[in-house]
UniProtKB/TrEMBL annotation:
Any one Pfam family match given in the protein's UniProt record, by short name: Epimerase
Annotated source species: Rhodoplanes serenus
Family (UniProt): Belongs to the NAD(P)-dependent epimerase/dehydratase family.
Ranges in coiled-coil conformation: none
InterPro entries, alphabetized: Epimerase_deHydtase, NAD(P)-bd_dom_sf
Domain NAD-dependent epimerase/dehydratase: start-end pairs: 4-278
CDD domains, per the entry: CDP_TE_SDR_e
Pathway: Bacterial outer membrane biogenesis; LPS O-antigen biosynthesis
Domain of life: Bacteria
Gene3D superfamilies given in the database record: NAD(P)-binding Rossmann-like Domain (3.40.50.720)
Record protein name field: NAD-dependent epimerase/dehydratase family protein
SUPFAM superfamilies according to UniProt: NAD(P)-binding Rossmann-fold domains (SSF51735)
Amino acid sequence: MSVALVTGSGGLVGSEAVLHFGRHVDRVIGIDNDMRARLFGAEASTRWLSARLTETLPGYRHHDIDIRDEAAIDRLFATYGRDLSLIVHTAAQPSHDWAARDPRTDFTINANGTLVLLEAMRRHAPDAVFIFTSTNKVYGDTPNRLPLVEHETRFEIDPAHPYAAHGIDETMTLDQSTHSLFGVSKVAADVLVQEYGRYFGLRTAVFRGGCLTGPNHSGTQLHGFLAYLMKCTLTGRPYTVFGHKAKQVRDNIHSADLIAAFDAVWRDPPRGEVFNMGGGRAANCSMLEAIALCEEIAGRRLAWRYDPQSRVGDHIWYVSDLRRFQDRYPGWRITHDIRRTLVDIHGGLVTRDTPLGLTA
């Protein structure tokens, strides 16, 4: 029997992984204890999606387990052992602001939880592929030292800079920068996953994601940029933009494109490799540009205000260079630009009770 295990299975990327790999393995095991609701409030709960996965997918088994619970995780891995062919680790505390309020909880979820999973894999499923969703925040605020040029709706990198054509690559330093405490805990997990690949020879891959988004995102003010922006546009809820004249730029990758990258790694796994992963030059936008698109797609205005105080470690301009991944996996490409992604998010928000399925 071939088994895939997905942590954070009720979240955006986790649920997409369940849906996708459920078509390719005999059983998918989901781990999600709805920590997101405890972190961000009831509106961020993933229980609705976990319930739909359980009801809809015959081969899906859900476990309400905290990834920090070493005994429970070890029992689960021991149950399936070498039948486990894939572990997709998406569970995390994902917010800068929340991490600053409770650093201990943030670190134990992001760093210790990852270690618990890696050790369980090493003991019980050493031939599995371990895919970890890291973050571009491991680079701290180093991207803010890049030479930036201000335009009418966005900041953009100086066209003479080497990053101008393709974005930021994996050689950017992680040192001598302000990360935010969230960035620190993700650095620890990121390096752990690399080391279990390089030191122990396990098949591990790290994806340093930009903004990950899609129609199943339970967006909140502290996490889920595009999804929460569209939610506020649709509902009339006020939205606050923090700093950088609302011209800060992010690349955004649709969850379907990210899962396609995961699939490529599963079929041809590396050992301890790191890939920057986001929308790249094909899918990026500033806050002002995202607001305009949300208003256009939703057909209504967003009630937003500007707070000139930027958040600690917040990037002014970040676009991922995808060439390292594309060179390793030439069959993969970005298929969703920002408009198509926002249209999908809009559709997901207004038709929450439609059947589950990946957006084509």
